[in-house]
Amino acid sequence: VREGGSSGIFAANDPESLQNAFTDIVAQSFFFSAQNVQIEDELSDWAEFDPQGNDGTIEFTVRIEKQSEDGTSYTTVAEQTADANTSVTLTTTEEDPITVKITPEVSGKAITVRLTENDDSEYSLEPGYRYSVTTRIKPSSDAVTAGMDSDAAKQTPDTGTGTHASNGEQGFFCNAYSTT
What we know:
Elements: H1 15-30, E1 38-43, E2 47-49, E3 59-67, E4 74-83, E5 88-91, E6 99-107, E7 110-116, E8 129-134, E9 137-139, H2 141-146, H3 163-166, E10 175-179
Antiparallel strand pairs: 1-7, 1-10, 2-9, 3-4, 3-8, 5-6, 6-7
């Protein structure tokens, strides 16, 4: 059923109208609305957060990127720095802006990122956008003590998980777990 209460029946009198109907059906079929989004990630014993703030606070970069029409690239439409355990509100710079409140919370070696509306109600992810929260990490004292010649440092990352994986480099696993 089409949004707005129509019956979901498509009529076409020519090939272009039929193609438009199929495009509309595909667009409706492949987007799902994710609400109450929360991301959890815990660093392993081999890594720790690298404080960047003048007062030793952990800083995060929160970013919203919009996908190009052909789906091959993304352009940053909102970006801001946030201290751990502090909410930031991002509003995109577009003609039809979206606004989301992003809260990175740190407890020990774990981070939880919540996406909400400004009033803390549930936020629905927008189609065609990518949301990211990044921070710097560094080797823990355990990793420094073990050294790069240790068996622990000979871990190969999963393909497609970042620069080191793409370059075929080995090292310490830095995540204990991650969930969305």
